[in-house]
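Contributing: when you submit paired examples, paste them exactly as shown. First protein:
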Amino acid sequence: MKKNFVLKCIAVLAMLLLPLPLLFVFDVSAFKGFDILRYLIYYSACIVICPVGYFLLSARKAQHKPKLIFLFNMIIGVVAIALVVLTVLGSALVHSVMGENEFDAFTLCFGLIPSVLLWYHLGMRIKKYNFDEIYSFPWLGIYLVETVLCYIFCCVMEADRAYLGASKTKIAVLLVIMGLITVILVNQTNIQTQIDQRRNTNLIVPKGLRLYNAKLIGIVGAIIIAALFLKDYIAAGLTWIVTMTLNIIDALIFNIRFQQTDPINGEDTQIPEGNLFSTERGGKDFLIYILVIVSVILVIVFRKKIISFFKSIASRFFGKFSAEEVDVYEADNYTDSYEKLDIRQERITKTTKKDCLKMYRKEKDKTKKFRLGYRLYLMWLSERSSDNLGNMTVEQQAEKSRKIYHGENDTLQLANRYSEIRYNDKNASDKDFEVADSFINELYN
């Protein structure tokens, strides 16, 4: 429970944010504008609403008599109705105090009533479920449908109510945030499932995998959200770079002196002064442009060092992926000298049937030739069978060959001799060589 406390808080946060698209539509429509103080008041009600649902469900689960269980179920339903009535009465009271022209209480109730009921239900889910069941896939589906409908409503009504344009942007940003929360919960749920399945077995999940994945998703999510909030600045920067590039090209083209046979007049010697090289602002923009280009070139030249620097920072941030290394000197008390091994990676090439047949013809050692012959026999068998022969035992391969091969040789004898030679480290006799050679001549001649 303690290990999943943070994940449970994230799931609770997702459920708390779930009714926000409705509030972005109906609250903004009711007050004709957005004010974050109202949302602080709405969410301060969760401090009362969620504990009510939590303690009511705790009291019901503590009962064992059917009549008491039925009684508490009735109390839970009555409290839900009471919360709806209190929400309506509270909106009407505030509306009468502030004045009729301040906001539309009826419109506000369309956003507040579902939110209050959801938060009340959330308090009961906290008591009843684990983190992977608090914010489940059905609730994700409800949120997506709610988001699509609210976004369409904002697009349709934006012409008449301009303040819904800001709500449309907030709904889009909230969709990204909820998507990242969903990714974290799904990822951690899958890891928890793997841990539960591998418990009391020899299979293990690497230590620190959950924290590693959570940090990685958090960093990617932070970058996405930062790019979303800074999109206007990024677009302005890219536009500025493109504009400066075009201005420089324009200045270079129109200030080139071409060879002329006619005499040059005084007006022709004057260089047209543009905004790029003006003394007020163009010079500063040109200097910044040069610095940006130089920075990009330096990043390209020193990319390997920059990447290694960020890797070192990431290794410190993420820590050890598996168990901490312990300094164990295995060579102590065994040797007094060390030899450096030159380990080189060799490219693994797949031996074809034609190459294997050439090796079989050239091989002089009977044992190696017998094993090559059995390999050729398996190649012939794999072409006629859809099963993976590499995962079968020698006896299973012989059983499979009995259904496919209908020649004169004995496949069981070949399999038995191969087992003796392969696993008992015996040498092939002349009779073994004759059996293998008879197979190869029959299959490949």
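Second protein:
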Amino acid sequence: MGECAFRAVFTVENSDKDLIMKSFKTLEREMRFGRGFVNVSVINDSVVITVCAKDLTSLRSLVSGVVKSLYLIFRAVEIGGAD
């Protein structure tokens, strides 16, 4: 997919980089289709999640997936740390 008309970038700092990277790696296939994709990388000790899409509907769909995934990751860490 070469065209990226619409983009959203999330930067996650002070978090478990490995957990976020592994979680998004398992979601990679779900977050890639003909009109958009999600790329995850580590830059300057932060996780950078870039959402790229050809149209606003696809961007909205992918951003929604990223936000839900981040919420679940952070919630699982919170619950796991409550012991």
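If you have annotations for the second protein, write them as plain sentences, like these:
The chain is about 45% helix and 30% strand.
The CA atoms of residues 11 and 43 lie 9 Å apart.
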